[in-house]
Specification:
Helix content: 10-25%
Distance between the termini: 15 Å
Number of helices: 12
Pfam families: MT-A70
GO molecular function: nucleic acid binding; RNA methyltransferase activity; site-specific DNA-methyltransferase (adenine-specific) activity
Protein name: Methyltransferase like 4
Number of domains: 1
InterPro entries: DNA_methylase_N6_adenine_CS, MT-A70-like, SAM-dependent_MTases_sf
GO cellular component, one term: cytosol
Order of helices and strands: EEHEEHHHHEEEEEHEHHHEHEEEHEEEH
CATH architecture: 3-Layer(aba) Sandwich
CATH class: Alpha Beta
Structural class: alpha/beta
Strand content: 15-25%
Largest sheet: 12 strands, mixed
């Protein structure tokens, strides 16, 4: 099950199982022939056995501040600075950390102990020794090339959406850059796009484009009840690694949140541990978009034994990331807040504890933990996405990155009942599930 523990502190998630919920059943199209396959995300991506920057596994969730700050001589030599010299950003980070330290420590300890009592986070005995999957993602480069194509005027574009439910599995006609693409089927599909095979979850919609070509998402015409934003924040490590292009806050302000948000839409923004980014969201982006701040949550990263992945008090990297939650308040819809069905209150300082993916920038899906804060038929959107979720709409210049077949294990579904093998799931009536509960609509 994807949610292992839920209590007043937050949740413990099995992130890999949560991904797999969107891929049962699954069909694979090859040369216009369809076959049923069992599709699972590769579990070796979630087998973090040891803490980073720790000596003798001293990053345990038990306090132990002095031990947790131990580092190897090699690591300590990387950063040389005059004793006691901190810049303003580091001072701000230290102040913020001290403010929420007890929340992280006590909440994580409670959640991990509850999970361990159920046999989870007790260490991985049956580890998968296969190497991590890899795939050179050239999607952002393709988006850059697509910018050279002329924009299609909205009035001239007859269809704003295209579907992947062709009976013969043919996808050569699909234009991924200027129209939203949907899989309307009740099952996942392995299809060929741009010469590569990708796994598309059931009822998923996506637009592959960069920031300058986001208009088709606005023209899509949907209003969303939940918007998750994972901005490509500017920082030194990103510049050094060149893993992805970053955007300044002045550009992020131009995201069309007011154009795609429904009244009282819940907006969740991932933030790095730099206080300047946190202030940017709370004091600049949210007021500019018309979003009212309601809570701060924390994603706490632990090993398969329940230890922090980094020492809690490490001056460099922390074992947690911040999410800022807010509600979109449209000035034209002020009456909504006083209606007979007010939105559920969002508690502050909740924790999401999980083993992080070894793949860079792969965040845990938030569908399960947010479903009680949005309506049962909520429509959900992720911006700057690198993967898809069942029932969600996703946008980004690498939106298919973690959908490549290299990240999945595909095996013949010999155990699929004959009745389901005989059904063409693309011909079933479309019933879009609530985005907060992707597993609830799975066929038995």
């Amino acid at each position: 099950m994807s949610v292992v523990v839920q209590n007043s502190r937050g949740w413990v998630l099995d992130a890999c199982s949560l991904i797999d919920q969107g891929y049962s059943p699954c069909i694979r199209w090859r040369d216009k022939h369809k076959s049923h396959v069992k599709c699972c995300f590769k579990r070796q991506c979630f087998q973090l056995l040891k803490s980073h920057y720790s000596v003798n596994n001293t990053a345990a969730v038990d306090g132990g501040n002095a031990d947790m700050l131990q580092k190897t001589d090699k690591a300590s030599k990387k950063r040389k600075r005059k004793h006691g010299e901190l810049n303003q950003g580091e001072i701000d980070s230290q102040v913020f950390h001290e403010k929420i330290r007890s929340v992280i420590l006590e909440g994580t300890k409670s959640l991990v102990e509850s999970a361990q009592s159920l046999g989870y986070l007790s260490g991985a005995a049956d580890t998968v020794k296969d190497p991590l999957p890899s795939q050179e993602c050239g999607l952002s480069a393709l988006c850059g090339m697509a910018k050279e194509l002329p924009l299609v005027d909205d009035e001239e574009q007859e269809e704003r959406v295209q579907f992947l439910d062709a009976e013969d599995g043919c996808t050569s006609h699909v234009d991924l850059f200027s129209r939203v693409t949907e899989n309307k089927a009740d099952c996942a599909s392995v299809v060929t796009l741009l010469g590569e095979e990708y796994v598309i979850p059931r009822h998923a919609a996506f637009l592959l484009s960069d920031f300058t070509r986001i208009q088709p998402l606005v023209h899509y015409g949907e209003k969303f009840d939940l918007i998750v934003v994972d901005p490509p924040w500017e920082n030194k490590s990103v510049k050094r690694s060149r893993r992805y292009s970053s955007l300044p806050s002045s550009q992020l302000k131009r995201l069309p949140i007011p154009l795609v948000a429904s009244p009282n839409c819940l907006v969740v923004t991932w933030v790095t541990n730099r206080p300047s980014h946190l202030r940017c969201v709370r004091d600049e982006l949210y007021p500019h978009w018309g979003v009212q701040f309601v809570a701060e949550w924390f994603w706490v990263k632990v090993t398969t034994s329940g230890q922090f992945v980094f020492p809690l008090d490490s001056p460099h990297k922390k074992p947690y990331e911040v999410m800022v939650l807010g509600r979109y308040r449209s000035s034209a819809d002020t009456s909504i807040s006083s209606s007979d069905t007010p939105e559920p209150p969002v508690e502050d300082h909740r924790l999401i504890v999980s083993v992080p993916s070894a793949l860079h920038s792969q965040k845990p899906a938030l569908s399960e933990v947010l479903k009680s804060y949005i309506g049962p038929e909520a429509k959900c959107l992720e911006l700057f996405a690198r993967s898809l979720q069942p029932g969600w709409t996703s946008w980004g210049n690498e939106v298919l990155k973690f959908q490549h077949v290299n990240y999945f294990t595909l095996t013949p579904a010999d155990d699929v009942p004959d009745s389901s093998k005989g059904e063409d799931c693309t011909d079933k009536p479309t019933v879009t599930p609530a985005c907060g509960s992707p597993g609830e609509s799975s066929p038995p």
